[in-house]
Amino acid sequence: MIQLADIEAAAERIVGRVRRTPLLNAGPLKDPPFDSGQNGALWLKLENLQVTGSFKARGATNALLSLGEEEIRRGIITASGGNHGLAVAYAGWQAKTRAVIYLSENVPAAKADKLRAWGAEVVVEGPVWDDANEAALATAEREGLSYIHPFANPNVIAGQGTVGLEILRERPETDLLLVAIGGGGLMSGVATAAKAMKPEIRVIGVEPTGAPTLKESVAAGEVITLPSVETEAVTLAPRRSAEINLEIIRRNVDDFILVSDEEMRAAARWLWFELGIAAELSGAAVLAALMTGRVTPPPGARVTALVCGAGSDGLTAA
């Protein structure tokens, strides 16, 4: 199990290599996403401003810095829905070593172009992440590359947990914390930090209706494999999580909320109109949960929502 000490060690390891992102008071707002009764009730942790455009740089950098010199020299490899791949490419660029990124066919071409701009080798394999991941594992074994799992690597989880560390240090009064869930690496780290620092905090996970991977796994009491995924939020859409993530999330997450692609898109438009924040669908998922009323904070609750990734999904209807 990941402990708070592991997250604190990761924070020391990655300092200066990633950004300490802003925690923004969202008010005043023309159209508040929930009836708070006060303007300063909603705060946003802006990981869309993180290097490479998402929180993923934290975990990938911590994982890289946890490798030995010879492992780094041989190179690193992963499979990604886009954001983790960018983070691993960035880590490879920092270390001046080879980085190979496997993508599934549903990843936008713009992310592949951005990966190449960071100097990574890009391979497209299979319709969904799980297919790309199987191919990446085979290549890692064949070529002796260090595989960095996007959500089940303990060092990745600890790195992602530094987001929670920053939130609770800056806003210890947070009552309700909303975090999007894909494979569960971000939530595993953030929820571990949050619950260790403030056991009474309520942590809510948000997933797409077309990819309820962790909600279904927690309900089943075991890691399940979705028969398919039906969402454009590809960074939130693995068909299967992992035991380490399920166990941490089962212990630390209080509830799961599902939102549709169109609800995430409307939330991305809201972020752009109200705050000039350019978020991808996954980055807007937590706001969608508030805007639809599926999460209704109690009066006076102090809410922090994690905007996990940058994108242009909200720009077209500003």
Shape: globular
Give the helices and strands as they follow along the chain: HEEHHEHEHEHEHEHEHHEHHE
* Quantity of strands, as a count: 10
> Averaged pLDDT, please?
94
> What topology, given as strand order, has the largest sheet?
1-2-10-7-8-9
Radius of gyration: 18 Å
CATH architecture of the largest domain: 3-Layer(aba) Sandwich
Which band does the percent of strand residues land in? Answer: 5-15%
Poorly predicted ranges: none
Any idea of the CATH topology of the largest domain?
Answer: Rossmann fold
* Portion of residues within helices: 40-55%
Q: How many domains would you count in the coordinates?
A: 2
Alpha plus pi helix count: 12
CATH class categorisation of the largest domain: Alpha Beta
Biggest sheet architecture:
6 strands, mixed
Describe the structure.
There is one protein chain. By secondary structure, the protein is an alpha/beta fold. The protein has two domains: 205 residues, Rossmann fold (3-Layer(aba) Sandwich), CATH 3.40.50; 92 residues, Rossmann fold, CATH 3.40.50.1100. It is 43% helix and 14% strand. The chain contains twelve helices and ten strands. The chain has a six-stranded mixed beta sheet with strand order 1-2-10-7-8-9, with helices on both faces. Strands 5-4-3-6 form a four-stranded parallel beta sheet, with helices on both faces. Strand 7, helix 8 and strand 8 form a beta-alpha-beta unit. Helix 1 crosses helix 2, helix 2 packs across helix 4 and helix 11 packs across helix 12. The longest helix is centred in the middle third of the chain and has 17 residues.
